[in-house]
């Protein structure tokens, strides 16, 4: 079964409030794979990445990766 994870990419050189950052959705089979993906995104885009789970990303608590 796949679980929906939400990613928000906030560049370090141009910070925005998290409510204004677009949400990207992707499905993974487990949380560990989603965490590895978030870490890769943070390195690739030199940004802070917010990872949340569920259908409403702005109301869910999230994990942050740099």
Question: What would you note in describing this structure?
Answer:
The chain is α+β, with helices and mostly antiparallel strands and 66 residues long. The chain has one domain (3-65). It is 23% helix and 38% strand. The protein contains one helix and four strands, in the order ββαββ. The chain has one helix spanning 31-45, and strands spanning 3-11, 23-28, 47-53, 63-65. The chain has a four-stranded antiparallel β-sheet with strand order 2-1-3-4, covered by helices on one side. The chain is globular, with a radius of gyration of 11 Å. The model has no long low-confidence stretch (mean pLDDT 93).
List the keywords.
single chain; 38% strand; 4 strands; globular; 66 residues; alpha+beta
Compact overview of the structure:
The protein has 66 residues and is of the alpha+beta class. The protein contains one helix and four strands, in the order E-E-H-E-E.
Helix content: 10-25%
Total domain modules? 1
User: For the terminal residues, how far apart are their CA atoms?
Assistant: 28 Å
Task: Give the low-pLDDT segments.
Answer: none
Percent of residues in beta strands? 35-45%
Question: Could you give the order of strands across the largest sheet?
Answer: 2-1-3-4
Gyration radius, in Å: 11 Å
What structural class do the secondary elements suggest? Answer: alpha+beta
In round numbers, the mean pLDDT is 93
H/E element sequence: EEHEE
Number of helices: 1
Q: Main beta sheet: strand number and arrangement?
A: 4 strands, antiparallel
Count of DSSP E strands? Answer: 4
The 3D shape can be described as globular
